[in-house]
Amino acid sequence: MIIIQEAIEVRLSHLRDARQLMDLDALVWDEHTAPGPVQWTSREQYLNACPPGSQMIAVMDTRVVGYVGFRTPTGLRSNSHVLEIHIAVHPAYQKQGIGSMLMDAVKELAREQQVRKLRLRVLSHNRRALAFYQKCGFIEEGRLLNEFCIGGKYVDDILMRYLLK
């Protein structure tokens, strides 16, 4: 599946995208957006955790400007109808609809694969992300109170879900 809107292509990730995706992780995931920074020690480590095809990516010209990663939460067949997702958009390209495009793309892919539920986790102090997920139709399903201590403050880990029809 490929979506092109205003010079943005949304497609599954390829091997050649690994370096840009690693760089995007280092830029986006910090104490405001994750329990800790995401720092890959090697391309091989990254590709083992995020193999080609495990993300929908947004590309402008040749630059990866965002992605939504997805995977089944467990290896259990009884849990294969669920995808756990995480999304990142380059700060210079936020507030331009790229995140919504990526969410729409992963929802469409999930429907094609007969996935019934998308789930994600977000830190309670990440108000922008919470508002975005709610705008995309996600609702809070659970909350792990004081799950992380970040910058000397305890932060809840919010579990959210989106049920596909």
From TrEMBL:
Write out the entry's keywords from A to Z.
Acyltransferase, Transferase
Domain of life, per lineage? Bacteria
Does the keyword Transferase feature in the UniProt annotation? yes
Task: State the Gene Ontology terms under molecular function.
Answer: acyltransferase activity
Q: Which SUPFAM superfamilies match?
A: Acyl-CoA N-acyltransferases (Nat) (SSF55729)
- Which InterPro entries does this entry report, sorted A to Z? Acyl_CoA_acyltransferase (IPR016181), Bact_Acetyltransf (IPR050832), GNAT_dom (IPR000182)
Enzyme class (EC, first level) = transferase
Q: Where is the N-acetyltransferase domain?
A: 8-165
- Cite the CDD domains for this sequence: NAT_SF (cd04301)
Enzyme Commission designation: 2.3.-.-
Q: What is this protein called?
A: GNAT family N-acetyltransferase
Q: What is the lineage of its organism?
A: Bacteria, Bacillati, Bacillota, Bacilli, Bacillales
